[in-house]
Amino acid sequence: MKIFSAAQIREADQYTIQHEPISSADLMERAAGKCAEWIEDHFSPTQPVYIFCGKGNNGGDGLVISRLLQEHGYTVHTCIIQHSPNASADHTLKLQQLREAFPANITEIGDLSDFPGLPDNAIIVDALFGTGMSRPVEGWLAGVIHRINDLRSQHTVIAIDLPSGMIADTSSNHFAVVKAHYTLSFEFYKLAFLLPENAALSGEVHILPIGLSPDYILHTPTRYHLTDRQIIRTIYKPRDPFSHKGTYGHALLIAGSYGKMGAAVLSARACIRAGVGLLSCHLPKCGYEIMQISEPCAMCIPDKDTYFNTHFHTGLADARYKVIGIGPGIDTQPETARSFEQLLHSWQQPMVIDADALNLLAKNPKLLQLVPKNSILTPHPKEFERLFGPAPNDVERLALLSKEAVSRHLYILLKGRYTAMACPDGSIYFNPTGNPGMATGGSGDVLTGILTGLLAQGYTSKEALILGVWLHGYAGDIAAAEHSQEAMTAGDIITGLGQAFKEGI
Ligand SMILES: NC(=O)C1=CN([C@@H]2O[C@H](COP(=O)(O)OP(=O)(O)OC[C@H]3O[C@@H](n4cnc5c(N)ncnc54)[C@H](O)[C@@H]3O)[C@@H](O)[C@H]2O)[C@@H](O)CC1
Ligand SMILES: [K+]
């Protein structure tokens, strides 16, 4: 699914108005109609509704919702916030229609002292500002937003299109923003909904289709995408009936150290479950038997060292590996760092670089220049900061992520609720699958295994990344459904992979 900027959303509205064709007033009727239907499906007419409207088109939506809910027996109080002497043309028209149909209970709010007292258990509809917002709300208007937020524990707050005060495609960190329980947004996810800093503001987001032009959506390029099944289906390649294990590549996984062999085992298992043809694991001697017994499908190459991987850079050319995954549990010993540097000097195919291998890069940033093009780096926010430095907010962190991916020709993901995946072509994909149960030791090692396994099978780095992160999250959702978010383990994510391949594609 494409994620458009506020300017593109305005263009999509205008394009639809011209080409469908439909008047803007009717498009507003359609959009607000979807919101009214959603409210009617979820809340009973016995609950009083308070709709707070701005004077732009977001407020216009609120006025239409007010009329439609009253037509269906809801008691609605419409509060028009007088933040400006002028109203948009559609707002003016919809206010006139509301006054004609239901003249009672329309109040104008000129300052905070006009704010109404609410009866118990009301529904607050926030239709103050939508995509027209481009600067912080200040003064008494910010006071209105804070008042709504003070009431949220006793009432249900439903934001129309965007929680008011939130800016659709840039950071609104530290601004006055409505904290909604639900956001009913039109046609597209907004970038703002995917940013961790806004997690507490949009609540449950529901995207309501309002029939914006499919032609516009198809032909308008955008930088941001939210992975969905449609994208996943274009990536996934069913297996060829005439294939053999050579078809699906030989991967080398460099993982584990004394006390951290679990990371290597989890990663190896995930790689195998992701469909790799053959897997070799380079392990410290102490891990040899552990791996042989835990995962008989993996071949093992013991290091010269008992406790750490220190000589994995040798013998690579003979084995004709398709891909190398490195990092889970390898620790950051000087000997491991030396071997890693030598590996980077000799290996030119894409790699998957995770965990301690990222920390080795952070300790010696000049090594980043040696990372083969099209490699995948999988940092969590702390590792990202160690590698590329801090950013003042999530939008600037995304910009930094993308800049590094483009300039270094790498695929870099940034783990989170919506893991962001930056590609060298400048695009950024967000992944919607997964849950907080995956915030558990070993979950990242599983992802490294999956990505390595997909690359070995011939998926491009971009394909492996988007598909791998989707499957990882999907398998995590299956694990959480089976065991609960608390009790699920990284091993359960691996177990869920089979079902993820069968149902998630
Ligand atoms: N035909 C269309 O274009 C459609 C638009 N729709 C609605 O229209 C919204 C966009 O409407 P608008 O472009 O009119 O914009 P908004 O209604 O989001 O906001 C514009 C109003 O807010 C004021 N404003 C903006 N920033 C402010 C600030 N920081 N402090 C105080 N006041 C501020 C402006 O002066 C203007 O009055 C969407 O979010 C959606 O809800 C929907 O009805 C779907 C169809
Ligand atoms: K709003």
UniProtKB/TrEMBL annotation:
The keyword Isomerase applies. AMP binds at residues 415-419, 444. PROSITE patterns: YJEF_C_2, YJEF_C_3, YJEF_N. It catalyses: (6R)-NADPHX = (6S)-NADPHX; (6S)-NADHX + ADP = AMP + phosphate + NADH + H(+); (6R)-NADHX = (6S)-NADHX; (6S)-NADPHX + ADP = AMP + phosphate + NADPH + H(+). GO terms for molecular function: ADP-dependent NAD(P)H-hydrate dehydratase activity; ATP binding; metal ion binding; NAD(P)HX epimerase activity. It comes from the Bacteria. Keywords: ATP-binding, Isomerase, Lyase, Metal-binding, Multifunctional enzyme, NAD, NADP, Nucleotide-binding, Potassium. (6S)-NADPHX binds at residues 57-61, 130-136, 161, 263, 329, 380, 445. Gene3D superfamilies: 3.40.1190.20, YjeF N-terminal domain. Binds 1 potassium ion per subunit. One of its GO terms (biological process) is nicotinamide nucleotide metabolic process. Its EC number is 4.2.1.136, 5.1.99.6. This is Bifunctional NAD(P)H-hydrate repair enzyme.
